[in-house]
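One-letter codes give the sequence; the fold follows as tokens. Both lines appear below.
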Amino acid sequence: MVDTPKCLEFCKPARPAGSVAAVALPLLLTIHASGGIETTIDSENTDRAAAVRLALATFPEGTARRVVVIAAGKEDRGPSAGPARPAPAEGPKPQSSATPTLESRLMPLIAAHKGKVAVAVLHLDTGESFRYHASEVMPTASLIKFPVMIEAYRQAAAKQVDLDATLTLKKSDKVPGSGVLTYHFSDGATFKLRDAVRLMIAFSDNTATNLVLDAIGIGATAATMEMLGYPNTKIHAKVFRRDTSVFPERSKQFGLGSTTPDEMIKLCAAVYRKQLVSPAACEEMLGHLRACEDKDKFPRFLPPQTKVAFKTGSLDETRTAAGIIECPGGPVAVCVMSCQNQDKRWVPDNAGNRLCAEIARAVYDHFDRSAAADAKAKKTAENRP
């Protein structure tokens, strides 16, 4: 309902009338109104009734209203300011014609996550990239098993280990957590070191990882990574065997392993480009990575049949993933790392899992659009006379 006229307050300062009153009134209303107004102002006269109509037009229908009119002193006469009318309702804002960037696609996802995040993205053909805290050292969880695989193949090429050597599973080897050996294989089961490597990557098998580390040495991965230019990439100890740590202080700070998104995408790129160990070794390693069973992270929102070679990691407060996504516009190395996460649930819809999945899809869409634009430009060029 509307307040009665007695609630209106008028102020008539003793000064000449003129344009001051006509201009000051709409400015004052504009400051306090929630919506816009449209009217025509006569700069030579003061019309209180028109001013009231102008003010009331700015309020939603059916609400209590209180209006204060400030005039510059002339009699309440003269031509009306014209009927005040509400401004047209604001419709949908036009979409920006600017092409979305990786930053505009990824930053809202990162900003919405409740935890510490670091991300790196690199298109392997064009060099287009995105980095967010990409040089910051982060806990890896099981993602560190990816560099362990690289070291196993390096040692095999150097004849330091034999990937076809037979391993025998003992009860004392079994540790909890992810994998199949502890829960589905009997004591005394035998298999090749190569199979242990595959289990370590495809199923993130903790027992298999420790068997691989027994073969290659715990500190060897960090030493090789440093030699190759990845000084922050280290596995600290055997899984669930903190007493074996070769980096005790880093174990306390980061747990099983540590790295940066920058170093992970460079390693992914090197394997994809077949620049590590040998082309045959890289092809076999890519096969292990493409067999990764974790569908809650990168593959979750990607179109079916999208090729993804990747490794992931999960702990209560940590979710990580790194690998190569083969987008329509070309291969892209992606690493997403989060820790200190508020969501500690062990469910597919964990926020850290979703962050990995949503970033993967955003990257895919970005380079899908790029591919479409390139194809259109190529077709246009071909059709030119």
Summary: Confidence is low (pLDDT under 50) at residues 1-41, 77-95. The longest strand covers residues 318-327.
